[in-house]
From TrEMBL:
Biased segments, Basic and acidic residues type: 69-81
Name listed for the protein in its UniProt record: Acyl-CoA dehydrogenase family protein
Keywords: FAD, Flavoprotein, Oxidoreductase
Region entry Disordered, spans: 60-82
Coiled-coil parts of chain: none
Cofactor dependence: FAD
Classification via Pfam families: Acyl-CoA_dh_1 (PF00441), Acyl-CoA_dh_M (PF02770)
Length: 407
């Protein structure tokens, strides 16, 4: 099957619009909300309303959170055709928005990571019922780190409701979102197969935001600790099937990560691209030109470094596109999603910090956004699974080993 690496024509208007938004709406307020940590960026309300309008008209495929579906209904029909769908459009538009500002993208109403969880796991009735909500996603707990299988938050069925108890930390948009997707276990003795996700509306008795975190970067985005104490939610709010299938294991929950990891890769790709673009311009102003037709060792050291970073960026970009394209075409993409997240997370952080270094005092000062992008990009190598976790997942997939066989 032939593969084209050009941007699909039908998505070019969307990508162009996202770039214009990044340049004209996000960049101008980027420094303002970096300094005003925890202050809600009110300018985003108008932008979110624009995206909602496009969604209702069907003109923005991919601008919102898309999901990766599994199962027989989602099996790809071998008709010789390919589809460029919502997942590919999402990563392309998100990369452009993060060329503007990662923290502001993460603060966008109704575009939370929990929305991707709903899109990936919810049944048709739930997808319709939760359409239009702004959902944060609560996974991480004190002591569990990136090992989501060790979740201790419990969900106990009591009549027509589940009772949730536990503590979640580092919940992106945890204070601003109107719903939280909470991962909890139905039975700890059954391991990862018993972990399910629940949609909890804000204001539900027993759920409270305990504190907001002060962070290195993405300061425009609120990051919350949320406590659940005998928090009761309707049993219909358990996403997907309530059945515990030990043969399926963690697959239901991992379908969410198969979707969100390429999105995080897109954030890193966009932020790194911003740093490369500005660094190239600043180097040109200093008399350093980059020549792609000459070997690196015959050029200025800064030019050689930029060539190496651009090669790394291109690799991350292509892995991101591959993971999203596979999701659109109903192909298992867990390996590719982790590869994209691992590569983009690492090179995104490396590139933004190296750009600060190449630009010296200008890069380190607040005269430009380079130092901010270096701070913002670090989280993209951490959340949704750290670099080490991604490498572990990739190794398991390549070697055909289970999580019990390769820890």
């Amino acid at each position: 099957m032939a593969i084209s690496l050009e941007d699909p024509k039908k998505f070019r208007p969307l990508v162009s619009q996202a770039h214009q938004v990044a340049m004209n709406m996000l960049r101008p307020i980027s420094r303002k909300y970096d300094r005003a940590e925890h202050e809600y960026p009110k300018e985003l309300d108008m932008l979110a309303a624009m995206i909602d309008g496009l969604s209702e008209s069907g003109a923005n495929e991919g601008a919102g959170a898309a999901g990766v579906r599994r199962g027989e209904d989602g099996a790809k029909k071998d008709d010789g055709g390919v589809k460029n769908g919502a997942n590919l459009a999402s990563v392309m538009s998100i990369a452009e928005m993060c060329w503007g500002d990662v923290g502001l993208l993460l603060s966008m109403p109704r575009q939370g990571l929990g929305n991707s969880a709903i899109a990936s796991v919810a049944n048709d009735e739930q997808a319709e019922r939760f359409a239009g909500v702004w959902a944060g996603m609560a996974i991480t707990e004190p002591g569990t780190g990136s090992d989501s299988a060790n979740i201790t938050t419990t969900a106990v069925l009591d009549g027509d409701e589940y009772v949730l108890n536990g503590e979640k930390i580092y919940v992106t948009a945890g204070d601003r979102a109107d719903h939280i997707v909470v991962w909890a276990t139905l039975d700890r003795s059954l391991g990862r197969a018993a972990i399910k996700s629940f949609v909890v509306p804000k204001g539900t008795p027993g759920m409270r935001v305990d504190r907001l975190e002060h962070k290195l970067g993405i300061k425009a985005s609120d990051t919350a600790t949320i406590i659940f104490e005998n928090c009761r939610v309707p049993k219909e709010n358990l996403l997907g099937s309530p059945e515990i299938d030990t043969k399926q294991g963690f697959a239901g929950a991992m379908a969410t990560f198969d979707n969100t990891r390429p999105l995080v890769a897109a954030m890193a790709v966009g932020c790194a691209r911003a740093a490369l673009d500005l660094t190239r311009s600043l180097l040109a102003d200093a008399g350093v030109t980059v020549d792609h037709d000459r070997p690196a060792h015959l050029q200025h050291a800064a030019a050689a470094k930029l060539l190496q970073m651009e090669a790394d960026w291109e690799a991350a970009h292509l892995l991101m596109l591959q993971a999203a394209w596979m999701a659109d075409n109903r192909r298992p993409n867990s390996l590719e999603a982790s590869m994209a997240k691992a590569k983009a997370g690492r090179v995104g952080s490396d590139i933004t910090l190296s750009c600060v270094e190449l630009c010296g005092s200008v890069g380190y000062s607040e005269a430009e956004l380079l130092e901010k992008w270096a701070r913002d990009s670090k989280i993209l190598d951490i959340f949704e699974g750290t670099q080490q976790i991604q490498q572990l997942i990739v190794a398991r997939r390549v070697l055909g080993l289970s999580s019990a066989e390769l820890k």
